[in-house]
Amino acid sequence: MPLARQFLNRTVAAITLSVAALILSACVSTSALDQLAGATPSGSAFTQALFRNYSFLANSLRGRPSDDEELDPFTLFDDSSSTDLLAEAFATKAMIAANGAEPDPEPSFDGESDGARNRLIQALAAGKDRFPQDAARAQTTFDCWVLNRTVESQRAASEQCRSQFMSALLRLEAELRPAPPLPPPVAAPADYTVYFDFDSWTLTGEQLNTLQNAINTARAGRQSRITVVGHTDTSGQAGYNQALSLKRANVVVETLVAMGARREAIQATGVGEQDLAVPTPDGVREPKNRRGVVTLLP
Known about the structure:
Distance between the termini: 71 Å
Radius of gyration: 38 Å
Helix content: 40-55%
Largest sheet: 4 strands, mixed
Strand content: 5-15%
Structural class: alpha+beta
Number of domains: 2
Shape: rod-shaped
Order of helices and strands: HHHHHHHEHEHEE
């Protein structure tokens, strides 16, 4: 039996059953296509989206544009007698959705459409409640592909719908994939400060504990760079203080290396009596200014 005749028989049977159901539910008209204009869809967000999409397809086939301006247009079809049953088929599905029921996607016709339909069924089951608009678009473009293929004059329209279906299905499947795990948090820069006695660059036991804490934090947070800056107070000559601050920075570096840090990952500088922690006039011995600052960087 020719493919077109098989479709006509199947579509007529489906339309007859749908029309009978609508009559029993107090619908007056026997044409689903004529009922679209006055239909008020009910049910879930998914069935309401199905109604809008199927209605658009049905109205396009009979040459009347959809009233839903928010719906992305599918393909506007030629208005000819060969598409009358197609329009009624889409209208029937629209009216089923209008009553809150979910019409099944059309049966497949070959290996490609069979595999596509299986993917669609799985995506609809997982996504029709979470992504109703995209799920409805995937189903209606699939039906647009399958049904239009049964009419020779609609083969080009069928191919356009097939392309739209594949895009819609890929979008829905992408939305349903689990979100990739978040990358591990990058540790923020952390500062550790050690203090020195007057005119000294020797570390005490307490300051060694501070540097060990810095090393432990760097390992746990996977920081890969360390800066060390030596400082002095304002007592003494500026040139002497500059050299002293560098000695303090270098002793901190050697201690960190001894504790396991990579020397090439450490950058050391001395700034003398610049950048005071506690602003003082010149010549003031301020313990909090005699320091070395260790900064851990990602």
